[in-house]
Amino acid sequence: MAVSSSRFPVPNAGEILRARYTRRLPVRLEDLHGPAHGTVDLPLHVVWSGQRSFDVDALRPRMGLYRTVLAEGQQQDVVDFLNRDLLIAQWPVLRTLISRLVRDVWEDAFPELTTIRTATAA
Questions:
Q1: 88-100: b or e for each residue (b if 16 or more CB lie within 10 Å)?
Q2: What is the pLDDT of residues 49-105, one digit of tens each?
Q3: Which end of the chain has fewer CB atoms surrounding its CB within 10 Å, N or C?
């Protein structure tokens, strides 16, 4: 839905953000080859203040890492720092911790995430 000015259509903020998050998606979930163990130090372009180092073996720090990368990472960051198996395993909880827009973009692109959520809830 676009707001129109007298000359040019102006996209709304939701459309702009959706397009931005869509460009950051991996082609396939199998492309996510981030670490399953150890410590991850995020670069400044992903997290410019606060905690930058995350222990992937601990649930809460890992959730923080995934939330940050999903919201702020570029496509290569998503591929490099997120692990497919960990993303799938924690998606039912992680999806409640991220913005609705990020969640919708990921679930629209990868319907298997919705299936996992439904199967986990059953």
A1: bebbeebbeebee
A2: 889 999 999 999 999 999 999 999 999 999 999 999 999 999 999 999 999 999 999
A3: C
